[in-house]
Amino acid sequence: MMLVEQTSAPAAALPVADFRDHLRLGTGFADEGAEDSLLETFLRAAIAAVEAWTGKALLERDFSLSLMAWRDSRAQTLPVAPVSGIRAVRIIDCLDWEVLVDPAKYRLQQDTHRPALLARGACLPTIPPQGSISIDFTAGFGPVWADVPADLAQAVMLLAAYYYEYRHEMRVGGAVMPYGVSSLVDRWRNVRLGAGGRR
Question: CB neighbours of 134 closer than 8 A, spacing ≥ 6?
């Protein structure tokens, strides 16, 4: 399985001004806004960490999932949520020839944690020997920051502020998410139930 992010969140969608206010940085100076690119870097890092922790795409963007085999012939769980739409499903053979699958043969099952591509018939399309399937889909809560749930948005602010505060030093346990952040994101996490299953 390989998941590729085909588009990234535009800078205009990031809450740089809100983050500046959250940090209580000074205003009215001649160099106001000079740190915006640095603030954007910390925001993107915090968003990436929260997304990795929860399996949720905060801002809407396009992804492509490549598979060598279906996990289940009737349904394929998608690794990112929430998914708003399937853009295309393509079968790729061993010679890299691509065939677009008729959208009438599948549908999207939307779910907060485990969205899935479902077969409309007996099973999903057959993947040829040494071939693969590519699923192009759009995931995220929405195109603007206001679409992100409040607790996840606050988690990003807290984590980005943590990165900003300790940007000049290496801290012990730096790989662990701060408690205030983890308590905000816990309910959004995919919880493994065993045998590779998730809730």
Answer: 64, 65, 66, 88, 89, 90, 92, 98
